[in-house]
Amino acid sequence: MPHRFKDVLWLAGRDYRNEWQMSGFFILALAAVLGPMLILFGLKFGIVGSMLDDLIEDPRNREVRPVGSGRYDQTWIEKLRSRQEIDFIIPRTRAIAATIDLKSETANRIISVEMIPTDRGDPLLNPQTIPEGLQQLALSSSAAQKLNVKPGDEINGSLARRFKGRSERVHIKLKVIDVARTASFTRDGAFTTLYLAEAAEDFRDGHAVPALGWRGVEGANEPRTYPSFRLYTRSIYDVAPISDALGRLGIEVSTRAADIDIVRSMDRNLSVVFWLIAVIGLVGFSFSLGASLWANVDRKRKELSVLRLVGFRTGEIVWFPVLQSSFTALFGWLTASLVYLGVSFTINRMFASQLETNESVCRLLPEHFLIALLLTLGSAVLAASLAGYRAARIEPSEGLREI
Q1: Residue 71 class from Cβ within 10 Å (0-12 exposed, 13-18 middle, 19+ buried)?
Q2: What pLDDT, on a 0 to 100 scale, did the predictor assign at position 76?
Q3: Based on the domain organization, do 86 and 128 belong to the same domain?
Q4: What residues have CB less than 8 Å from 202, skipping those under 6 apart?
Q5: Closest CA to 158 of 216, 187, 200, 218
Q6: Is 220 part of any domain?
Q7: Which domain holds residue 85?
Q8: Cβ(328)–Cβ(380) below 8 Å
Q9: Strand (E) positions, 180-213?
Q10: What pTM, to 2 d.p., does this model score?
Q11: Nearest to 384 by CA among 320, 332, 330
């Protein structure tokens, strides 16, 4: 049986090569249908895929920000942190108390920056350089530029308050351990530990901070509550569920869910358009190829009946149109892939100046080419089934009548 299949494969290949003009036309016809579809999907995957990648990779799109002020204790924060949709959450102190004046020796100026509590796992910072203790911080890009400092430099921090009718100011030496990406925080800011932010709030409230030697009234032993928090979900797809969950608790939040929905809706709609075009194109080509293979079987009834006469079985005769259809699918897919590679290279070159590094307007992954090949082969085999049915009905006697 394997030996006989090799004979069928060899004969089908020889016949396909001998009629190279017709075979070439079918290959070009398939490439004319499949090539534009690959380019269309490449554009869809490149443009919308890049937009989705930007949404996914930018942690700011995963941020859920509470609107207004509330009262959240550490127990409530920990309970929320236990949800699997949440990647990072940390309390925030009062905005009016969360500022600090910074000065460096390399810049003749003092800037007031916002203090942003941070901890391990903060998506806005390098995980290897998260501030620890009371004397480390990571600056935003704009703050670092104004102070003309880099990681490893030391700067002076100061806080002022009005206490018992007197103006007081305290100073603290701080070490810059990192500079955040520009996109992480666009304003002047300093990422500090929650302990330092709490210390600044306590000082401004007139409380003593023994760890830093700041005098004041001894604080009460009541559990601390926070007016707000920083929260980031694990993915952009978790933003809406967390927003809804907080909404049910009566907490109004602000997110970029609208931008995420726009891109996801665009992705869905373009996918529908692409598959409609793909189905119409493949079905149309399948009918055309099937009709041509049917006519080809009719034209070669004598040759096929002779093969039946010399011992080829019905199942083996059916393989002739199926194999030749598969040849067309394979070479048509290869031609369409080469056309796509040439066109995509040209398109990406045209838009190269408007793209970031490693971004592409037209892009396909290896698995996309494999899926296209499998769909094309499947369509070709289905198209050949009609011709195979026709070939199976050829009787050996037809060959005898021709001798």
Answers
A1: exposed
A2: 93
A3: no
A4: 208, 209, 216, 219
A5: 200
A6: no
A7: 64-91+227-255
A8: yes
A9: 189-193
A10: 0.67
A11: 320
